[in-house]
Amino acid sequence: MSKAIVFYRLPGTNEIVKREGKINSQLVPIDLISESEKDIFYISPFNAGSNAFACVLDKEINKFEVVSYQRNSKNNYDSETDFIQKVDTAILEMKQFQQISKVVLARCKEFKIAEEIDVNAYFLNLCLSYPNAFVYAVSSSITGTWIAATPELLLKATKQELETTAIAGTKLFDTFTAWGEKEIDEHHQVELFIENLIQKHELELINKEGPKSIVSGHLCHLWSDYKIANKKGILDSFLNELNPTPAVGGLPSKNAIDFITKNEHLDRKFYAGFVGIKSNNKTQLYVNIRCMEIFKNHVNAYAGCGITVQSNAESEWTETEQKLQTVLKFLS
Hints:
Blueprint: E1 2-9, E2 17-23, E3 28-29, E4 40-44, E5 51-60, H1 80-97, E6 102-112, H2 119-129, E7 134-140, E8 144-150, E9 153-157, E10 161-172, H3 181-200, E11 205-216, E12 219-229, H4 235-242, E13 250-251, H5 253-263, E14 274-279, E15 282-287, E16 291-294, E17 298-307, H6 313-328
Antiparallel strand pairs: 1-2, 1-7, 2-5, 3-5, 4-5, 4-14, 6-13, 6-17, 7-8, 8-16, 9-10, 9-15, 10-12, 11-12, 14-15, 16-17
């Protein structure tokens, strides 16, 4: 177990939790609704199913402390030309072989900084700018130092009820026009994935809200929310099949992940995994998007976009640039 510093703010609340804790050095299956009185922070790498690094939170603290900058600071930084070529490859494969209907391609952008980031001030800026996001910052020798403001709920679980969301499609809020066929289809594919999963596990759908437009900072997304009756013994398998969702992987899931592994050439690390908190017998997990890893003299920020046969490669590059601004705008 290693020391970890964790700050977080749940969506729609004003309370900022600042804690020190101990984080395990191995991925473990997460404990969704145990009776433990301990608060636990979870952070999971991309495509890890229901496994995560678990940090048992202990004493309250006043100030964020950087415990560790990971040594592996470099990643594959795609140029615009490189990324567009990958998108075109995905579109061509969809048309020719029809093995995938959607794939999410991600990229990493390096941003040089003149001096170390004041994580305390940066975290507060994210909280103020994104009141409906899950905002967190974590630092440990296991994870390195990460910060994010993610709008996407993966799974909320109590003994009685589950909640999950479908989020897909992106437009700039300031220039919003009607949703196009590409965005509507992309979002509908995520909806069908969740609804098929509910049917497969023979779960009762209590309520579906959406699809509707939601605003996250300077971006708009299509959103649907599902409330589901919980059933004993299904949580682990449900989460394992839910994660990664088509919003960060693609469809069919295995084929899309195989395409990502073969073509993306990016170490996603914790990007598009999940993060969250277990407290008071409730677990709230969020897809780890709009995130970046912090180093001493630069940051690595991550963003992705959903590719379908209707995609335009140049537009997808622009979408990732817009998403990167969520976390990079406070650095410029």
